[in-house]
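Quick one, probably user error.
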């Protein structure tokens, strides 16, 4: 009787595990730096049929809502990360999901940092290719790269050019990944 119960329990655990959602890890983690140049987390990426997906894991950020954007240059020179350039904007649109002339391709949803300073978020970049660096006009990873930037304040999704989201407080250089889902 005990043997049958153990087999039933093992089978139930196996079935439950096979039904659990698949956590996509992404490619090699890219360092996320704060304005002092210290690594505070990582960004991992993977390519899927609908675009690129970024998984962000960080700590040491201020609690609250923060704007998040993909910037057009793959440089994260502190302390202000201005080296990352403006938002990735191959269609030459205005900033913001709520702007009738927007959004930029690099405009992303705000993220929420927990009271303990931890951020864990997975965000999609529709129609973006992060699988290869290319010289094609409008490519996410072009010859000067791209960067993910976290801003100090929430993005208002309308004010051009940056959503009134404040200073750039963290940055990660995005590199091509061969991971596809």
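Nope, works fine. Designed sequence:
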């Amino acid at each position: 009787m005990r043997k049958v119960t153990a087999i039933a329990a093992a089978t139930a655990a196996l079935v439950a595990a096979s039904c659990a959602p698949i956590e996509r890890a992404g490619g090699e983690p890219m360092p996320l730096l704060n304005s002092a140049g210290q690594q505070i987390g990582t960004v991992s990426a993977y390519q899927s049929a609908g675009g690129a997906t970024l998984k962000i894991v960080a700590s040491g950020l201020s609690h609250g809502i923060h704007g998040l954007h993909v910037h057009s240059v793959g440089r994260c020179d502190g302390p202000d990360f201005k080296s990352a350039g403006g938002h990735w904007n191959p269609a030459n649109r205005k900033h913001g999901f709520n702007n009738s002339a927007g959004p930029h391709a690099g405009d992303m949803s705000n993220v929420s940092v927990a009271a303990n300073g931890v951020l864990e978020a997975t965000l999609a970049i529709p129609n973006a290719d992060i699988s290869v660096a290319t010289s094609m006009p409008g490519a996410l990873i072009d010859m000067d790269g791209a960067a993910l930037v976290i801003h100090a304040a929430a993005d208002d999704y309308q004010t051009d050019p940056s959503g009134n989201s404040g200073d750039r407080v963290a940055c990660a250089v995005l590199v091509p990944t061969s991971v596809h889902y």
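The chain has one helix and nine strands.
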